[in-house]
Amino acid sequence: MRGRLRALPLAVALVLLAATLLAGLVVGAAGLPVSGILEALADRIPFVHVDSGFSVVDENVLFQLRVPRVLMAALVGGMLSMAGAGYQGVFRNPLADPYLLGAAAGAGVGATLVIVLVPGDPGYGVPLAAFAGAILGVAMAYALGSAAGRGNRAATLVLAGVAVSSFLSAVQTFVQQVKAEELQRIYSWILGGVGSADWHQLALVAPYSLVSTVVLLAHGRLLDVLSVGDEEAASLGLSAARVRLTVLLAASLATASAVAVSGLIGFVGIVVPHAVRRLAGGSYRVVLPLSLLGGAAFLELADLVARTVIAPGELPLGVVTAFVGGPFFVAVLRASRRQVET
């Protein structure tokens, strides 16, 4: 039925995600066999005992380094992609991005302040400050957009987000210059990555990610209704303003959860939802869940590239996604322009 998530696209997305997760567990400096990894994972299932033959060191490499890393990459990619789909539904614009409303700039300010002012931070202050900064940036953009008056609320919010992002970026630059010796650490966070992921960080953001996922998936049908116009939605008894606010908050929460633990990783929220629309249709009941799975798989692949292309070194994850997303953004922009002209 049109607008429903069919079994084949869902199965393909799940298989792709499972393959990328397994590849993320296998690839690394310590050579761990696929069979041993699968047996070690099975051994962690309650009431199941399988001898993987792994040493204590191998177990630590797998469960303290690789498993948190692949789970974090999947979480961040899924959140950014689904947030992008949510923003695009609210603004009816395929170029809308998860960092549209000042979330990235706010996260950058929060992380920079902790790096500069708390030199002895054990590593958990930066994610918390980035999360708080992302939420603050979105709140400022929404307050500014609401104060600007009525009219085209979507366009007003976009402009407010641009203004807030510019202001917060200026604040971040000022703080960086005050503490220039911390520039390397600041820029390494800004360029993004999941190499430092651990179980504590996963537990920190998992509840927020779960809440935003549930809310966004539950609003798929309502976003489909909004896509036909506010008047039609009102005739069906739907409050367009309330739906937009709810989706904006959930998408911003998803973005804040992602950037708090990964830094700034761009273009995921544009590349994946657009690819899903081209392959599986434009209904948000399809786009949102497939963007969640596709975004997780996409960032897993990007992380594999980041840690293998210049091994034993590692590229920043944001650089890899920019290499893919930059040309893709241009292609989407050209396609959108042709649609407007026709």
UniProtKB/TrEMBL annotation:
Gene Ontology molecular function: any one: transmembrane transporter activity
Protein's UniProt keywords contain Nuclease: no
CDD domains noted in UniProt: TM_ABC_iron-siderophores_like
Entry's transmembrane regions: 70-87, 99-118, 124-144, 156-175, 245-272, 284-305, 317-336
UniProt-annotated location(s): Cell membrane
Alphabetical keyword list: Cell membrane, Membrane, Transmembrane, Transmembrane helix, Transport
Family matches, as Pfam families: FecCD
Superkingdom as given in the UniProt entry: Bacteria
GO cellular component terms given for this protein: plasma membrane
Membership in a protein family: Belongs to the binding-protein-dependent transport system permease family. FecCD subfamily.
Record protein name field: Iron ABC transporter permease
Species: Actinomadura montaniterrae
Lineage: Bacteria, Bacillati, Actinomycetota, Actinomycetes, Streptosporangiales
